[in-house]
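WARN retry 2 of 3 for item q-0093 after timeout on previous attempt; input resubmitted unchanged.
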Amino acid sequence: MFDQILQLVKEQMSNSTELTAAIPAQQQEAVNSEIANHVTEKLQAQGAGGMLDMLGGGMDINNITSGLAEKLGTKFGLPQMVTGAIVSALPGLLKQFTGKDSSGGKNGLDALTGGLGSKLGGLFG
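OK item q-0093 returned
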């Protein structure tokens, strides 16, 4: 799950030239990894019930983003404007993780569960 989230974080960050420019080049990889690690830990802490909530659209984004801005600011010295922009981009990233990718391939949950993500998602959508 971490690798898939990390890939989405990298894609999301590379799509925002303002964010990329605001993070020193030597820190970009570490910032991406920290974001992916934070999201992965929060999702795993929610357990199976949290995954089902994500599929049903009932995900508590505040729980997932909680503490991330402060962690990025403290660890990397990023300004509040930058950390706030990163946190505000997470709902879109999580939507990508739970939805089909643009090529019609498996979503992040499908890749983890062998297609079960879409099957369960159909129960809620």
